[in-house]
Each structure stands twice: as C-alpha cells, then as structure tokens.
Design brief:
mainly alpha
Length: about 100
C-alpha cells in the first residue's frame, strides 16, 4: 500500500507586525513613530542640557504609543509598542528630572 506524503507549506521566517495577514498601515506607522521617539528620548536623556528635547519627544512617544496600544490589532504590534513606550517614558521622566519641558 502506497503511503501518501502530505506536504506542509514552507513557512518563511521574517519579521512582520501583520501576523494576522491583514495590512495595518496606521498601526505600523504608530509603532515606527513610537520607536523613533522612544529612542530619541532615551538617548537625549543622557545629556542634561537636552532636557527639553528629551521631555517633548518622550511625551510625544507616550501619546503615540498609548493611541497605538488602543488601536493595535496584533500581538507583535503590542509587544514593540510596550517596549517603545517604556523607552519614551524613561526619557520623559529623566528629561523632567533634568529641567522639565522648557
């Protein structure tokens, strides 16, 4: 008796936020903006004379990340948003501690 070998589709391992197969341009844009703002906020928080940049980018990152969490559709988006939100919040808090928004 001949056995039938079932072929499984090849799964490509590439990084994507759209794990449900649907495009999410707004959500992906918010993820990217939050990551950029979080990185800028954390990097500039290391310099006390850049407290205004750190505070404002951190605040913008917190707001964009919060809205991104509100409308996110996949777990991958939420995962990156939480990390970026943490970076933005850390930069915001350190910027406030070094001198505030102005």
């Amino acid at each position: 008796m001949a056995q039938h070998a079932e072929r499984t589709p090849q799964r490509t391992h590439h990084f994507t936020f759209n794990t449900d197969g649907q495009p999410h341009p707004l959500e992906n844009t918010l993820v990217a903006v939050t990551v950029v703002l979080g990185v800028i906020s954390v990097v500039t928080a290391g310099f006390h004379f850049l407290h205004a940049v750190s505070s404002w980018t951190g605040l913008a990152g917190i707001l964009t990340g919060g809205y991104g969490q509100f409308i996110s559709a996949t777990t991958a988006e939420r995962f990156v948003l939480v990390i970026a939100l943490g970076m933005a919040a850390l930069g915001f808090y350190l910027g406030i501690a070094h001198g505030g928004l102005y």
